[in-house]
Amino acid sequence: MGRLVAVGLLGIALALLGERLLALRNRLKASREVESVDLPHCHLIKGIEAGSEDIDILPNGLAFFSVGLKFPGLHSFAPDKPGGILMMDLKEEKPRARELRISRGFDLASFNPHGISTFIDNDDTVYLFVVNHPEFKNTVEIFKFEEAENSLLHLKTVKHELLPSVNDITAVGPAHFYATNDHYFSDPFLKYLETYLNLHWANVVYYSPNEVKVVAEGFDSANGINISPDDKYIYVADILAHEIHVLEKHTNMNLTQLKVLRIQNILSEKPTVTTVYANNGSVLQGSSVASVYDGKLLIGTLYHRALYCEL
Questions:
Q1: Residue 144 in contact with residue 155, Cβ under 8 Å?
Q2: How far apart are the first and last CA of the chain?
């Protein structure tokens, strides 16, 4: 009888394990085949060989690239080279990427940049916020962009217990930002378990020098974040749920859910989105960001190349 119960429990456990694996494959779109959609005027950006996970563009056409992200289990084409920030002037006739110098005193050897965001203050000072994973930990670095010197002056490192697994960031002040935690835990095994069990514990945090708080939660895997041009709404991409959350921003910086957009019916006669560019991996692998400026499209990747296109 005891053996029968044990076999029964094992069977139930294996069935649950199989169900979780199938659910995870579906959330990851592991079986999806991508059919390429090309643009006529595209080329790979010289100097970006090991990922350009995030891109942010200033109103004057200066584009910042976060390059060289490394994570456990993530392939790297330059495993021994630290990450960096590159810049490209999209108003140039033939734009090229240049690496920005970073001020002395900042630990360049462990620089591992992820999501980035810019903020322009009332006096036209440009601040660059960078999610950083030195030794696979979690910080947010705040820099002042010095255009005349093509350099970044490091101002501050932000660490906080409410920022255990930071993915992306959108700046709303010179030392103020919203950030996504793609997991609740920071430990790699617990992160995997969280994803596997589909716990929906990812969140969005608001940070200022005077207040730090969770302002939205319940995400499967909160990833990209951005703010609307009128500063009234925050957009959050939940990549495993395949949703874009539209959140209303209040004067106390809290967020409330307004709506969720799902990318659906791409192949129908009336699609809800337009596929401008798609590639099956022959040109780009692991795309993570796309940004548009004045008819120019930049596409970045987790660990591969970056693409410049004219629309």
A1: yes
A2: 70
Report, in this order, helix, strand and coil percent for the chain, each rounded to 5: 15, 40, 45
Residues pairing with 19 in the sheet? none
CB 217 within 8 A of CB 199: no
246 vs 258: CA distance, rounded Å: 5
**Distance between CA 152 and CA 115 in Å, rounded?**
16
What is the C-alpha radius of gyration for the chain, rounded to an integer number of angstroms? Answer: 21
Dihedral angle, C-alpha 134, 135, 136, 140, nearest 10 °: -20
Interacting residues of 158 by C-beta distance below 8 A, sequence separation 6+: 139, 140, 141, 142, 207
pLDDT digits (tens, 9 = 90+) for 115-135: 999 999 999 999 999 999 999
114 is catalytic: yes
Residue whose tokens read 């670095």: 141
Greatest pairwise CA separation for the chain in angstroms: 80
**Catalytic residue chosen out of the listed positions 41, 114, 133, 176:** 114
Residue 269 is encoded by which pair of tokens?
A: 């006669």
**pLDDT grade for 84, boundaries at 50, 70 and 90:** very high
pTM value > 0.85: yes
- Nearest residue to 169 via CA among 159, 158, 161, 180: 180
Size (the chain), residues: 311
- H or E stretch including 18? helix 2-28
Is-contact 64 116, C-beta < 8 A?
A: yes
